[in-house]
Amino acid sequence: MKSSFKNIFQVSRSIALVFLLAVSTLVFFGRILYLSGIYTSKTDKMVAHTYREMNHLAKAKSGIAESEALVSSYLLQPQKGTYEELEKLHTLIKYSITSARQLAIDSTQKQLLQELETMILQKQEQQLSVFDQPSFKTNVKSAADFAAKQKALLFVINGKFTLSTDRQNWLLQQRTEANEAAEQRLIRIAYAGAMIIIMFIAVLLWQLNKDIRRRKKAELEIRESEIKYRKLIEGPGMITITANLNGQFEFVSAKSKVLTGYTSFELQGQSFSKLVPEAWHKPVLENFEQQFHDYTQEKIMRFPILTKDGEEKWVKLTSLIIANDNHIVGFQCTVKDITDEIEAESKLKESEELVQTLLNNTNEGFFMVDRDLTIRVMNKPSREGMELRTGKKVEVGMNLLSVIPPQVVEGAKLNFEKVFNGEHVEYEARYDTPKGVQWLRISHSPVREQNEITGAAVVTSDITSVKLNEEKIREADQKIRAMLSSLNEGFYMIAPDYTVIMINEAGKQIVKRICGKECNEGDSMIDVLKPERKEKFRDYVERALRGNTVEADVYSNDDEGELWIHNTYFPVRNEANEVIAVCIASKDITEQKLVNRAWEKVREEREENQFRLQSILDNTPLIMFIKDLEGRYLLINRSFREAFEITDEVVIGKTDFDFEDDDAAIRYRESDEKVIALMEHVQTDETVQMADGEHNLLIVKFPLFDRENILYGVGGIATDITE
User: Fold this and answer.
1) What is the pLDDT of residues 539-561, one digit of tens each?
2) Which of 443, 370, 353 minimizes the C-alpha distance to 140?
3) How many CB atoms lie within 10 A of CB 233?
4) Whether the predicted pLDDT of 7 surpasses 50
5) I want to staple 152 with a disulfide (CB 3.0 to 4.6 A). Which of 449, 479, 611, 701 is the partner?
6) Per mean pLDDT, which range of 81-85, 93-97, 466-470 is the poorest?
7) CA–CA dist 484, 481 (Å, integer)
8) Which of 333, 328, 419, 409 is nearest to 371 (CA)?
9) Which of 570, 567, 569, 561 is nearest to 589 (CA)?
């Protein structure tokens, strides 16, 4: 009995010990799972937080590229609504960058985003200033300054975006590595505890220990597999793919549906060719083959994919080698959607090409140099001019001093020194070229970036023709008086005190007929004019002396008949742009006035005839209408309006397709075309819906001809034959 009790006690103690160890195991692993869950939840939150911040940065960067393209497009061809569209983009950019800054936790990242926000606001102010400036199409210098400022500021902003993104990626990497280290510690603790427990259980129950070890081994393999892929599966903003050497997907993360439209189950076991367009099969395959042969640990490429719905998207693929004992067994890839980035790059490239095309199509030469006098930008006229004057091939990137005539090198150095000190330099220069003498007006302006002069913009205008014509102009000036004397139109110049400086013969005749007095040079025009005309004349001259052009008609009726004169008063300026006199050009428009009066009478008669025709049509009980050759209604009568309860505003200028169903409109149009083709009347029966129900109409359509017997429309008369 005592032995039995002892055995029972030993068995009970063993059972209790096994039970205690089992409970301890559950508590131990429960604690590990709890801690693992805390770390996983914390990592998920940090990853989601980082993803939101990076998403705001990506939206801000995309918005900046769109606004840059919009401003460049406006510079080329201003369009209504561009300013409002730009303001909407600015609001979106401000919201995105402010949200990113507010989400930032790291102090360095906050500082970067604060600087980036300041630069973006500066750039937006520059972009909005475009709408307050004169047209850049006629001001190449302003366009150059603006383009340089925009390009420089965009370069700095993109640099800040890169720094911020790199910082964010580094923070994400640090958090991920810390999470992995914590998970590894937990795994080691769990492994050590499991081994100790297994050792105790092995002493008590050897057979049971075998089962436990097999189960623990399976659990350890599952946990190691989960750890292996957790980082990739939980990566922000991308999908993870594992492929074998045959290009077949062995693992696809759950986010694949967002990017491709396919679920991970639909893609597993499929070849990469299911997503990649046929034209890109070979480049993508060659990329992986090169990585395989070169044993390159990491390789990046960009290419398009086709989603399940057939939509094309651009992605960036980062592939890593998966090796087993130094033998490559597959590839681990991360795929990121970069469609917006590709579109922004394309728009920016198109804008740059349009700006370059605009510069190439200007008559003036334009180029920009940095402080080392290296040519950075050059349009076609400037390149061709330099090559003509020096006989050398000129390209962007060359030093300006090496492609200008030797005799002007020292002068060029002095001029650019002034420009780099903030001065504006303009002068004229004479060059001997194989095509003859060439005169240029050369203008130098400093290029500033953040209030620092970084280079110079040079505009060259060919004034050869101006120089060569100066002598001709002087000769022509001597012939002006003789030419004016031969004009049929009156011309005279009046001083500010109303003294006649110059008057041609036609002008004398016009003044004599209107005023009844002779007018010669040196006379006062006020003394020549009739009293009732003096006040208006003073007003016209004073307005012209203020720089305005004034037009006025003068009427006279004398023994010779009616006389209408159209006078144009315009200011005469000196070289200082000061108004020194007023010229008056007088043109006899009597014939034109009489013709206009006759045409006005004809128009009134036509309107009266049209009114009479409309009155006749409106007083007939038949439905009547007239269409043009395109089927548009030109006229309807009162019966038409009352039958269909419709107004002229709804019908005139419209076709049957605008207010009938397609089948009826097609029938009506076919009968119209038949009348036009046969040039004779056509009769049809139609059932139409009116206000009081359905009616049967007998419609007779016939061609309409003008006085020249040219077909201009189709007429129609509809008779109600319902009863």
Assistant:
1) 988 998 898 988 888 888 877 77
2) 443
3) 15
4) no
5) 449
6) 466-470
7) 5
8) 419
9) 567
Amino acid at the residue 9? F
pLDDT in tens, 479-494: 555 555 556 688 788 8
CB-based contacts of 698: which residues, under 8 Å, 6+ apart? 683, 684, 685, 718, 719, 721
Closest CA to 253 of 270, 238, 273, 274: 238
pLDDT at residue 16 tops 80: no
Three-state SS sequence of 608-638? HHHHHHHHHHHCCCCEEEEEECCCCEEEECH
Question: Measured on CA atoms in the order 72, 77, 83, 85, is the torsion positive or negative?
Answer: negative
Contact call for residues 484 and 504 (beta carbons, < 8 A): yes
The C-alpha atoms of residue 498 and residue 716 are separated, in whole angstroms, by 68
Residue 314's pLDDT is: 92
Select from 655, 620, 626 the least CA-distant residue to 638.
620
List of residues 6+ apart from 310 with CB closer than 8 A: none
Helices (H), 361-408: 380-390
Q: Which of 531, 505, 536 is nearest to 518 (CA)?
A: 505
Amino acid at 143: A
Cβ distance 277 to 293 under 8 Å?
A: no
In this structure, what token pair is assigned to residue 380? 């076609």
Stretch 527-547: mean pLDDT:
88
If you ran DSSP here, which 8-state letter would residue 77 be given? Answer: S
Which residues, in sequence order, are CB contacts of 132 under 8 Å at separation 6+?
Answer: none
DSSP state letter for 133: S
Structure tokens at 480: 């002006």
Q: What is the pLDDT of residues 359-404, one digit of tens each?
A: 566 667 878 889 888 988 888 887 888 888 778 888 888 888 888 8
- Given a cut of 50, whether residue 111 has pLDDT beyond it is yes
Q: Which two tokens stand for residue 291?
A: 């990585």
**How far out from the chain centre does Cα 406 lie?**
45
The secondary structure of 187-254 as a DSSP string is: HHHHHHHHHHHHHHHHHH-HHHHHHHHHHHHHHHHHHHHHHHHHHHHT-TTSEEEEEETTSBEEEE-T
Average pLDDT, the chain: 79
Least confident of 77-81, 631-635, 653-657: 77-81
State how beta strands 436-449 and 425-433 pair.
Answer: antiparallel
Contact 74, 41 (CB under 8 A): no
Residues 482-505 as b/e (b if ≥16 CB within 10 A, e otherwise) read eebeeeebbbbbbbeebebebbbe
pLDDT exceeds cutoff 50 at 700: yes
- H or E element in which residue 689 lies: strand 682-690
Structure tokens at 14: 């063993």
pLDDT digits (tens, 9 = 90+) for 660-686: 788 888 998 999 999 999 999 999 988
Question: Tens of pLDDT along 23-34?
Answer: 676 677 667 767
- Cα separation, 78 vs 138, whole angstroms: 13
Residue 129: the pLDDT is 77
